[in-house]
Amino acid sequence: MKNPSTSLAEQGEGEGDAEGHPRVAPQRTCAGCGGKASRNTLIRVVANADLHLVVDSQRALPGRGAWVHPAPECVAGAQQRRALPRLLKLPGAAPVPSEEFWRELALAALSEAPTASTHE
After folding, report:
1. YlxR domain: which residues (predicted)?
2. Which of 32, 36, 48, 81 could join 74 via S-S bond, C-beta 3.0 to 4.6 A?
3. Residue 105 has what DSSP assignment?
């Protein structure tokens, strides 16, 4: 059995299984648009111990994660739909995501965004 903490590249992504089926990267759903994409192309958001949302730029923080395309319209969609607290299953008493968090997420989206939009 492969170590779940190793990346797909380290696990031999593309090599295939014993039956010759190619290995496929896990797909995640964007909280903003609902489109599916590889986790390597999305920004991960988690809630810290104080239930505040943080951008997980290394995709390594513990806990349930929510994913957003690195596109301004997806960040805006996630904010407008109030999707992140719901997807992270935060209790009703959890703090509302701060404007600072949304700015940080928008900056992360801009820094990771491809030159042309790659999602639908």
Report:
1. 28-91
2. 32
3. H
Q: In whole angstroms, what is the distance from residue 67 CA to residue 62 CA?
A: 14
Domains identified in the chain and CATH numbers: 27-111 (3.30.1230.10)
Residue 101 pLDDT more than 70?
A: yes
99's enclosing H/E stretch is helix 99-112
Which amino acid, 74? C
Could you identify the residue written with the tokens 């779940």?
A: 4
